[in-house]
Automatic annotation (TrEMBL):
Gene: LOC107420631
Domain of life: Eukaryota
Organism for this UniProt entry: Ziziphus jujuba
Name assigned to this protein: Uncharacterized protein LOC107420631
Ranges where the record places region Disordered: 196-217
Length: 217
């Protein structure tokens, strides 16, 4: 599905297929981590109003989700898991209070070691999916044609495009958030990859090799 697609039913289909594609990737713990990130973490954050914050253990689990759904970078998880609890609480409180100023919110979070704009975007998306989408490679590639630039400047361009697309898709009475747009783009990209690998006769052996490599990490 192209980012410029205006067919609401196709976007809805992509969002609906998200869960099955998470499961189809067959990555250890991904389904449970995704369930935690989308369904359990947001209420936890909002229960702490008026001064919402994230804890170090929650941030660590969020990082596990991000790395499992995307590219595995174990050093980032080590950095985040070792962060001081008070520092994480303070930085995330300031970030959440900064919204809807996404630039300021990201800046408040990236003072934490191991937390770049992409991880910071995942924190904000868990708290305010209607404002800040997660900066996934798949959605970046679809929206901007580039998934290698993890800067704040690039993220702000990405946010603007996904907010506009969400508004466009919500014009017919449905509610589409920027985070829904991100999930649809991710789902569509992963669906295409899964289809391609199923058409490839060597896909099963490749999957087996990849699984063995992952287990050594």
């Amino acid at each position: 599905m192209e980012f410029g697609c205006c067919n609401l039913s196709l976007w809805k289909e992509a969002v609906s297929a998200y869960q099955s594609r998470i499961e189809a990737l067959n990555k250890p713990n991904l389904a449970s981590l995704d369930d935690y990130y989308r369904n359990h973490l947001p209420p936890l954050l909002h229960q702490r109003n008026p001064n919402s914050y994230i804890t170090t253990s929650e941030l660590s689990k969020l990082m596990q989700w991000k790395l499992t759904r995307g590219k595995w970078r174990p050093r980032l998880l080590d950095f985040v898991s070792g962060l001081d609890e008070a520092l994480v609480k303070s930085a995330s409180e300031k970030a959440f209070r900064s919204l809807p100023d996404v630039s300021k919110a990201i800046t408040e979070l990236t003072v934490l070691k191991g937390v770049g704009p992409a991880t910071a975007s995942a924190v904000l998306a868990a708290y305010a999916p209607d404002i800040a989408p997660f900066m996934s490679d798949e959605a970046m590639e679809a929206a901007l044609g580039n998934s290698k630039d993890y800067t704040l400047k690039q993220y702000l361009i990405f946010v603007n495009k996904l907010q506009k697309k969400a508004k466009e898709l919500s014009s017919e009475g449905d509610i589409f958030t920027p985070s829904d747009v991100e999930r649809a783009l991710w789902s569509s990209a992963v669906g295409a990859k899964l289809l391609s690998s199923n058409l490839n006769p060597d896909s099963k052996s490749n999957t087996s090799k990849n699984t063995k490599r992952k287990r050594k990490r």
